Every structure is written in C-alpha cells, then in structure tokens.
C-alpha cells in the first residue's frame, strides 16, 4: 500500500516535518543507527550544520530525512524548556535567531517549525 492509498490522497505527498520527543537513551539509539547507516544528519532544520547535533534547552536533538524526504527530528527536551537563561536556548527564543521564519522561507519542505513539534501526525487525526 502506498502512502497515497493509505492517506486517501490523489495529489502529490509533499515532504513534511515530524518531531519526536525521546529520552536520552532513545536518542543515543537513534543516533547510533544513523551513524551506522552513514545517513546524513544535521543540528538544524535548514541543514546548515551537517554531522552535528544540537544542545538547545539543555537537551540534545538532531534532524535527518526518511526515505520519502520527510524531515524527522528527535529531541530530548521540549522547545523553550530551558528558557532564555539556558546555556544554549532554542533559537526560537533568542532575539536574533528567528529560526521559524528562516526555516519556512529557506526550506519549503519543513512545515510549522514554530509550532509544538513534540508529536507526530497519527493516522485518523
């Protein structure tokens, strides 16, 4: 069954962004599989920091693509949870780093970067 059949779409499926809140141990496992398979990964959604993970909000996170070109993100802390006093606050919270706007402008495949991204789309929702 193709993605189109599953979702009941007649149109093209455009790449989307899915974020998953994971534990530190789960991120270690995900990261190990990415490296084991020599998959590209980035610290940021614009893919400007290749082969790096981010440490925003006192957690860790990374971005990678699935085989269909969707941008997947694994993070260990919710956006903004470290506040503006964190050693590395999330760029959405800094006055100079409007990541949400830049992401939508520079990469149309990443959607709703400034929204609550700790859940993935599930069938039937």
Q: How does this model look, in words?
A:
Strands 1-3-2 form a three-stranded mixed β-sheet, with helices on one face. 21% of the residues lie in helices and 12% in strands. It has three helices and three strands. A hairpin with a 5-residue loop joins strand 2 and strand 3. The C terminus is likely disordered. It is globular, with a radius of gyration of 15 Å. It has 125 residues and is an alpha+beta fold.
Q: CATH class, anyone?
A: Alpha Beta
What's the SSE pattern?
A: HEHEEH
Secondary structure tally: strands: 3
Measured on Cα atoms, how large is the radius of gyration?
Answer: 15 Å
Helix content: 10-25%
Low-confidence spans:
97-125
Strand content: 5-15%
Largest sheet entry: 3 strands, mixed
Mean of residue pLDDT values: 76
Give the spatial strand order of the biggest sheet: 1-3-2
Question: What is the CATH fold-level name?
Answer: Signal recognition particle alu RNA binding heterodimer, srp9/1
The helix count comes to 3
Distance between the termini: 19 Å
As for the number of domains, it is 1
Strand-pairing-aware structural class: alpha+beta
CATH architecture: 2-Layer Sandwich
Using the alpha-carbon principal axes, give the shape. Answer: globular
Name some characteristics of this structure:
Signal recognition particle alu RNA binding heterodimer, srp9/1, 21% helix, 3-stranded mixed beta sheet, 125 residues
